[in-house]
Amino acid sequence: MASETSFKTVSRVAAAQKKAAQPSVLPPTTTFAELGIDEWLCETLKSMQIKKPTEIQRACIPPILAGKDVIGGAKTGSGKTAAFALPILQKLSEEPYGVFALVLTPTRELAFQIAEQFRVLGKSIGLKESVVVGGLDMMTQALELSRRPHVIIATPGRLRDHIRSSSGAVHLSRARFLVMDEADRLLSPTFVSELEAILPQLPKKRQTLLFTATMTESILALKDAEDDPKKRPFVHVCDMSVSTVATLDQFYIFVPSHVRTTYLTHLLRSDDFKEKSVIIFCGRCSTAEMITIMLKELGIRCTALHSEMSQQQRLDSLGKFKAEVIKVLVSTDVGSRGLDIPSVELVLNYDIPRDPTDYIHRVGRTARAGRGGQALSIVTEKDVQLVQNIEARMNKKMEEYKVNEDEILKELSEVSTAKRVASMVSLSTNGRWYLCN
To answer: How far apart (Å, rounded) are the C-alpha atoms in residues 161 and 19?
Structure first.
């Protein structure tokens, strides 16, 4: 991996391999200092109330510091970002110059979150980081890139646009680190053309770090892409046999499909949830927008997050939700990966995802870092098979959540009226909603 290999070659090798990673032996350590982290970073972590390294950090920090390529797999909320950010910052402090590290991630929200962690951890060394994602002004980003920030956190599409805009637009020739976060998505066919434009810009001699919450055979196969055993990456895969954390309580409520919105409204108004921080996941942008407008019509303060919003709108929504100014966030799956908002107490699935992995990422937005949390799925007659697939993947049954149906019927007329208003507003303000996926 350290040597330059074209993305196509890597993909062919990955597809051909079927070997599983052997579990690595964790060092018997309990502190960051014992992992080799410098005192200044340990003090920063202490000020953030981070006292002990997680499993993925214990496993991956020493080999990264030793100059090895690394493949790391761990569940959401396990501290993967710090597992690569800490050693990168430590190496940067020893030899600060230009673009030191490139971090690629599939979503804009995750890019901003990673940048925030780098910013906090690297404040004492004057870290300069730049977020390069779609939806923001390219000229402003180009000016930032021309100043050669220490760390670039980017989505592949926008970074490729900058590379193509000018031969000297992005200075990656001396980068020491390439990080791919959510590597399972970045190494999918979706990003092939972008990676083929980006990878040749990086030096042959670099460290490559792949981290993911969904380990695949193709990623594990990359450990054998190098013929020389000394150049093969260090691999550590945390226990993923239990796909959701033990502190997460998971429920379902079975409803007729034509009254889903009424049940949703009743749940948000109920004593169990009305004061809680909630993320509602929808399958389409159009649904998310309609639900947001409908809930506002019903007097429930909420904000939206989906790909048809401008980047500034998305940042504003997340800012209000993180600050708990607004307690309800209505999101598509752009918010299902990487968002680390400790205050989230409930994940509510308005639409059931077709892929059980998407469900796992969604509910991973709550019950993070040992905290408790709840997940509640609104299941219609069309969703039974999807829920059974999710339960089979988790090897765990959801519990039924009981509601008073007589109370719900009292809200039917009010909610139906608000839904009609929301549908008309959505279509009149943007005729493209119905095309949104």
So the answer is: 36
Question: Do 312 and 423 share a domain, yes or no?
Answer: yes
- Determine phi and psi for 50, rounding to 5 degrees: -100, 110
Residue 433, token pair as written in the block: 């909603």
Instruction: Classify 38 in phi/psi space as left (phi over 0), alpha (psi -120 to 50) or beta.
Output: beta
pTM over 0.85? The answer is no
Cα–Cα distance measured from residue 226 to residue 3, given in angstroms and rounded to the nearest whole number: 9
Contact 328, 303 (CB under 8 A): yes
| Domain housing 393 | 248-427
Burial of 254 (0-12, 13-18, 19+ CB in 10 A): middle
The whole-angstrom separation of Cα 415 and Cα 295 is 9
CATH number of domain containing 176 = 3.40.50.300
Average pLDDT score over residue span 95-113 = 93
The tens digit of pLDDT for each residue in 78-89 reads 889 999 999 999
At 243, is the pLDDT very low, low, confident or very high (cuts 50, 70, 90)? low
DSSP bridge pairs for 278: 328, 346
Report the percentage of the chain scoring pLDDT > 90: 69
Q: Residue holding tokens 């590597």? A: 183
SS3 94: helix
In a domain, 319, yes or no: yes
